[in-house]
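User: I'll paste a sequence; please echo it back and then give the predicted structure.

Assistant: Echoing your sequence first, then the prediction.
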Amino acid sequence: QVQLVESGGGLVQPGGSLRLSCAASGFTFSTYAMSWYRQAPGKERELVAGISSTGSSTDYAASVKGRFTISRDNAKKTVYLQMNSLKVEDTAVYYCKTRVWSGYWLDYWGQGTQVTVSS
């Protein structure tokens, strides 16, 4: 079965950096696009960044463009989110997501990892 396991979250001061990882299993990772979402308390889940199956194309939310970088290693079946110049407003639970074809499209989510930016 499809599994997505995030790691790398934690507490960091404003201006600091973190790298999130999402280890995938149960599907042909190199075939599918991957994305990172986040959800802050009391807010809706929002798309942060996406990456194509080969890694050749990426996209970012305006709020993180220039500070965050999404990447993937298809050999390791892992997608990353490098977060630099973190701000208090980046505090959220970060989720890894993919959409897999199994006769129809199904969305799969990881369990999330907490990122807290605070002094």
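The chain is about 0% helix and 55% strand. Residues 14 and 87 are 5 Å apart (CA to CA).
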